[in-house]
Amino acid sequence: MDLTQTLGRILSLYLLTSGVAFIVATQFYLRLTQRADRSDLMAVNISGMVHLFVGFGVLVTHFEWGGVPEALVTLLGVFFTLRGISYYWIPQLVLRSAEQGRGSAQGLRVMGAGFIGYGALLGYLSFFG
């Protein structure tokens, strides 16, 4: 099994799990996003660290654009890295409260559906492609 398949399988399972969580536990994640500006600063730092670790891990081992699966995996590495950098460099913007455009139940469900769609495509290509 090549690296694209391995990372694709792991990342697709993450996306599918997160997407379902946003849909079935919408109220929990809605409260979480609405209180983001009151988050513990150490938790914010750790979240940034985890995003960077995953993003850098993907990009250092897999910066390939040869086909759809390769591009999907690499794009996730880019997205994780950008999210981690934003937690470190501009935490006040990441943690804005719900009135700044985050925190609607419908938005969380749409994001969940997007995660499920991306995860399903990546999973199909990684497990069966």
Architecture overview:
Helices cover 78% and strands 0% of the residues. It has 6 helices and no strands. Helix 3 packs antiparallel against helix 4 (68-89). By secondary structure, it is mostly helical. The model has no long low-confidence stretch (mean pLDDT 90).
Notable traits:
129 residues; 6 helices; globular
* Main β-sheet description: none
- Shape category: globular
In angstroms, what is the radius of gyration?
A: 15 Å
DSSP strand (E) fraction?
A: under 5%
How far apart the termini lie comes to 12 Å
Unreliable stretches: none
Q: Helical amount among residues, as a percent range?
A: over 70%
The helix/strand series, from N terminus to C terminus, equals: HHHHHH
Structural class label: mainly alpha
Total strands: the figure is 0
Mean pLDDT: 90
Count of helical stretches: 6
In brief:
The chain has 129 residues and is mainly α. It contains six helices and no strands.
Please write out the topology.
Blueprint: H1 3-24, H2 26-34, H3 41-61, H4 68-89, H5 91-94, H6 105-127
